[in-house]
Specification:
Oligomer: single chain
Shape: elongated
Radius of gyration: 37 Å
Largest sheet: 13 strands, mixed
Structural class: mainly beta
Low-confidence stretches: 1-20, 37-55, 58-113, 115-127, 142-215
Number of helices: 0
Mean pLDDT: 79
Distance between the termini: 66 Å
Helix content: under 10%
Length: 827
């Protein structure tokens, strides 16, 4: 690639492998990128071009790397040399011609003094790039490429030519790198383009290569055989490959025997003139005899001679039919059998029979995959299709697989449809015994029956064992039940960020019931790694003795975005209370809260819970992600997202900040966390649960301190509300002091909640750090505060009083001055 002022051009990409026949399959292909150009340095030795990357093809063949980058230059008006080398292995650092190379024009740059400069053109495979014209600030054109040939054996090179002259602040684009053509037929890889140099800088890396796959040329074939077969006719099909340029005559030949490659010896033939020979063609052969075996073959003729399809095809004008031999069962298991049958006098040649599948059973889940094609061998009257059931551990009852004959080189007889039943094993129930040497669910000895749980099973934790469990299995379950169990289950799940594990969600097809014990996630340390994330297709029930509880499972001691220098109290949705130093900032989304709570001086913040429940949710116990209480500085509450059809119960949902109990000056309260609850069922309301039972309070101050933690945020959207138009409830239980809830929080889009109503209660203080947007705002009690902080609050609602609350500090509130729009409905 061409360089610019003092910049070496980038190298071309990788070359080719030896040619080979590409078999069907999935391949991992990489073509090495060209090396970077050398960089100019004001003193010392200037850099040479960098080595190119290796190429790879699933380690099957010799790796051929990219060309090396061009060396840097010291003359102000010269571009860098082209990257190059012949690309063999790691490539050389010298420029060389390539195949299929074409340079791009340079660019026009502008200096700080508004002086325009013209870059040189990118180097081509056949010639260097052209110079830029400094007088009229015209960039140089790219160098030309060599023609690309597919015949013969060419040894290509990896590099482009040198770059053109010209001083510029914007580099000329690199040319396409030259790739070797290699041998034909087979698969080859051309090189990628070299990168242009920047002003006083090195050239960019060359581009990656292009994959070229070549297959043996088959001019004509029988296009998978005859179709639309009746007892007296059939459509004979053929396919002509692209490449022919002259008028062509097609020949369809058929008869009761294979007559080879002499048209005259076939029983029947039909000639068809094809002016534009490409694609599928067919001929309807009529006057056939019923219950006969026929052969056919196609050919074409033009100025280049006569070419036949490689193989002869066969079809029968007799019937094919099904016979069910036996049903299948997961018990045993027992394989189901369907037999495909033809008449005895039609068995001389192999016959492909096609079928489709339907029914209540799921292909690939309830039975092993079937191809949709059964081949009756030559000399045989039938072939069996084996239906192998898959033991899926689900209690689904008897399921069915319906086999239906599809059109092919035969006549469809009767029966053409048969139904095979798969007897169900029944629902597998696995009970936690805890008899293993560890707490992991993947340990066989911890279960009855012994063995780790499989996909689709029911999981039960009861009085058999109260040993704690770490659930480390990424599998789909049927039901989850904790009843009589008093231990704690911790899901070993990750957020799924780069470098983390793949177990990010536990899906339950049926119901999840936590009548007793605790369901949580494993503890975090200094990074946001673990949370509880469950998708429940049925209902969720948390009993009076049960809890989904991530208290203290967030950021560890003194860690998190909301931890102050003093490490006294953590922040999240609300700020922690202040000691010697200010507390840390609020952070995270309010509509989709997923973050952990920050740790305090002595303990960890609240964890993160995400529950997606398609059915109803009843909580009579606890759903919480609180910060921990402590004698010193407390931690912040975590996050809870609950999406469910409806919500009921007499329990509590909380992401409260931790409370301090000590008398030391550092005994400070943690900020509240964040909660977002959406009811999806039309008409569903929060009346059956009670909004007062949903809290994200800041921590209550200790007896010797006056300041509480700041209130967190609670977003509520019922079944009658449009998405995003819900209510943010910010309340702080009439705690004392001046705790803050900041907007926009760190990492929050200031327009994230611009259609929602913010409703403040009981000692909550909303503080603006920057301009913010809301659908509406209400200060519902006399101890609520809106601190504008000299910023602008835009309210998309007509103006109203904010009493009985207080608005403080200079700033501006912009109210909506008119209707947002009018909708007319006609019917």
């Amino acid at each position: 690639g061409g360089g610019a002022h003092n910049g070496g051009g980038g190298g071309a990409g990788g070359l080719v492998y030896d040619s080979f026949v590409l078999l069907s399959g999935i391949y991992n292909i990489g073509v090495g990128r060209g090396g970077a150009g050398g960089e100019f340095v004001s003193s010392g030795e200037n850099e040479c071009g960098k080595q190119g990357e290796n190429s790879f093809f699933d380690s099957m063949l010799l790796a051929v790397g990219g060309g090396g980058g061009g060396g840097s230059v010291q003359k102000a008006t010269e571009g860098g040399s082209g990257g190059g080398g012949n690309g063999f292995r790691l490539g050389n650092k010298e420029g060389a011609l390539g195949v299929l190379g074409q340079g791009f024009p340079g660019g026009i740059g502008e200096s700080e003094s508004n002086t325009h400069y013209a870059s040189g053109g990118g180097g081509g495979a056949a010639e260097p790039g052209f110079d830029g014209n400094l007088d009229i600030t015209k960039a140089g054109n790219g160098g030309a490429g060599l023609p690309f040939h597919i015949t013969g054996v060419l040894q290509g090179y990896g590099g482009g030519g040198g770059g053109g002259k010209g001083k510029g602040c914007i580099a000329g684009n690199g040319g396409y790198g030259g790739g070797g053509d290699g041998f034909w037929p087979g698969a080859n890889w051309t090189g990628g383009g070299g990168g242009g140099g920047s002003d006083s800088g090195k050239g960019f890396f060359g581009g990656h290569g292009v994959v070229i796959v070549r297959y043996p040329y088959i001019a004509i074939d029988n296009a998978n055989g005859a179709t639309d077969v009746t007892p007296n006719s059939a459509s004979l099909n053929t396919w002509i490959a692209p490449g022919l340029r002259s008028d062509t005559t097609m020949y369809f030949c058929w008869g009761s025997s294979d007559a080879g490659t002499d048209i005259a010896t076939w029983d029947n033939s039909f000639a068809m003139n094809v002016p534009e020979p490409f694609g599928p063609f067919s001929h309807l052969a009529t006057g056939l005899s019923a219950n006969n075996l026929y052969y056919y073959r196609t050919a074409m003729s033009n100025d280049n001679g006569l070419v036949w399809a490689p193989d002869v095809a066969t079809f029968i004008t007799g019937e094919i039919w099904f016979e069910k031999i036996k049903d299948a069962s997961e018990i045993g298991p027992e394989t189901g059998i369907v037999r495909v049958i033809r008449a005895d006098h039609l068995k001389a040649e192999e016959l492909n029979v096609f079928y489709s599948l339907s029914g209540t059973a799921t292909f690939g889940e309830d039975y092993e995959e079937l191809s949709g094609k059964a081949t009756i061998p030559a000399g045989q009257t039938s072939v069996d299709i084996l239906l192998v059931p898959i033991f899926d551990h689900l209690g689904e009852g008897t399921e069915t697989v319906i086999f239906s004959l599809e059109a092919g080189p035969y006549v469809i007889g009767s029966p053409s449809v048969v139904t095979v039943e798969i007897e169900d094993y029944g629902q597998v129930i696995r009970t936690w015994t805890g008899l293993g040497d560890d707490e992991y669910a993947s340990t066989s000895e911890n279960w009855n029956p012994e063995g780790p749980p499989f996909r689709g099973e029911n999981i039960i934790l009861n009085t058999t064992s109260h040993k704690n469990m770490i659930w480390d299995l990424d599998i789909l379950l049927c039901d989850w039940l904790q009843d009589g169990y008093t231990g704690s289950v911790s899901l070993e799940q990750d957020y799924g960020y780069p470098g983390q594990g793949s177990f990010t969600n536990l899906r339950v097809l049926g119901n999840c019931t936590i009548n007793s014990g605790v369901l949580s996630h494993v503890e975090n340390e200094n990074k946001q790694t673990h949370r509880l994330n469950m998708s429940i297709d049925g209902d969720l029930l948390v009993g009076v003795n049960g809890a989904i509880d991530a208290t203290g499972k967030g950021y560890t001691v003194g860690i998190g975005p909301g931890i102050p220098e003093s490490r006294s109290a953590g922040s999240h949705g609300g700020r922690g209370s202040t000691s010697t130093f200010a507390s840390g900032p609020c952070y995270g989304s309010t509509l989709n809260p997923v973050d952990l709570g920050s740790g305090g001086r002595d303990n960890s913040g609240g964890g993160a819970i995400f529950l997606d429940v398609k059915g109803s949710t009843i909580i009579n116990g606890f759903l919480k992600a609180d910060g921990k209480n402590t004698s010193g500085g407390a931690s912040a509450g975590g996050s809870i997202i609950l999406r469910t059809a409806s919500l009921a119960g007499a329990g509590t949902i909380s992401a409260d900040g931790g409370r301090p109990s000590g008398g030391a000056y550092s005994a400070r309260a943690g900020g509240g966390g964040r909660i977002a609850i959406t009811l999806n069922e039309p008409g569903a309301k929060f009346d059956e649960f009670g909004i007062d039972n949903i809290t994200a309070f800041g921590g209550k101050p200790s007896a010797t301190q006056k300041d509480s933690g700041g209130a967190g945020t609670i977003y509520l959207e019922d079944g009658n509300t449009r998405t995003g138009y819900g209510i943010f409830r910010i309340a702080n239980n009439d705690h004392t002091g001046t705790p803050d809830t900041e907007f926009p929080a760190e990492g929050q889009d200031p327009e994230e909640a611009n259609t929602a109503t913010f409703s403040l209660y009981d000692g909550a203080a909303m503080v603006l750090l920057d301009d913010f947007f809301v659908g509406d705002i209400r200060l519902n009690t006399d101890n609520t505060l809106l601190d504008l902080g000299e910023k602008t609050l835009t309210v998309y609602h007509k103006e109203h009083s904010l009493a009985p609350g207080t608005v403080d500090n200079y700033g501006e509130i912009i109210w909506e001055t008119g209707p947002r729009g009018t909708m007319y409905v006609f019917w």
